[in-house]
From TrEMBL:
Keywords: Membrane, Transmembrane, Transmembrane helix, Transport. The chain crosses the membrane at residues 21-46, 66-89, 136-159, 179-198. Its main location: membrane. Residues 18-197 form the ABC transmembrane type-1 domain. It is a multi-pass membrane protein. It is found in: Cell membrane. Belongs to the binding-protein-dependent transport system permease family. This is ABC transporter permease. It comes from Dongia soli.
């Protein structure tokens, strides 16, 4: 069977796998972004939080993705939830690091001026510090997003449909066609996501100038 014949025959299935991949990606990146920014703020503000959270996140980040997926099976079962939690954990560290770094590098004179004007701490955080750190934060989100797009292919090994399903099928059947299709589509999605977030990063940087 040729590549075009395979695409024509399994087109609907391929489209379904793309949507499933994007759904998993969107949910895991959203969770990683919310938790990563929240922890990054806490790490930047409180030394005790940094001493506890950062080593734990570093340890989880160092674990191979397939190990996290395997460990999640007895805890969360085989399926969507079992795949989502480990992936979202893997995406936290780049966002956490960049958030903490971005906040640490905000111009202290601007913050002091805001305090002098009577801005409360939360207003300073959301109106001055986070907007100033946003290009760096988006850079962390971009790193996390590209990583998650690729790592998501491993979810096929615990019974969750994604573009990894095509790759696993190709390996199992010694058939290069689904393997090539799954790999190419994953690479294309990673490039698109990277391009969009690079654009968002530039827009955020331009707003500061």
């Amino acid at each position: 069977m040729s590549l075009m014949d395979y695409i024509s025959l399994y087109r609907d299935n391929i489209i379904d796998l793309i949507w499933q991949h994007l759904l998993l990606f969107s949910l895991s990146l959203l969770g990683a972004t919310v938790l990563g920014i929240g922890l990054g703020i806490a790490v930047a503000r409180l030394r005790i939080v940094a001493s506890v959270i950062v080593p734990i996140v570093n340890l989880l980040q160092a674990c191979p993705e397939i190990v996290l997926l395997a460990v999640s099976i007895p805890l969360l079962g085989i399926g969507f939830q079992g795949a989502l939690i480990p992936l979202f954990v893997k995406g936290v560290l780049p966002i956490l690091r960049n958030t903490a770094s971005g906040l640490a590098n905000v111009d202290e004179r601007t913050v002091e001026a805001a305090r002098g004007l009577g801005f409360p701490p939360l207003q300073i955080l959301f109106r001055i510090e986070l907007p100033s750190a946003m290009p760096v934060i988006i850079s962390g989100i971009r790193v996390s997003a590209v990583m998650l797009i690729s790592v998501l292919t491993l979810t096929a090994y615990i019974g969750v449909d994604s573009l990894g399903t095509l790759i696993v099928q190709g390996i199992a059947r010694m058939d290069p066609i689904p393997l090539i299709i799954g790999s190419i589509l994953t690479a294309i999605l990673a490039l698109i996501v990277n391009y969009l977030l690079v654009g968002a990063e530039r827009v955020a940087a331009d707003r500061l100038t």
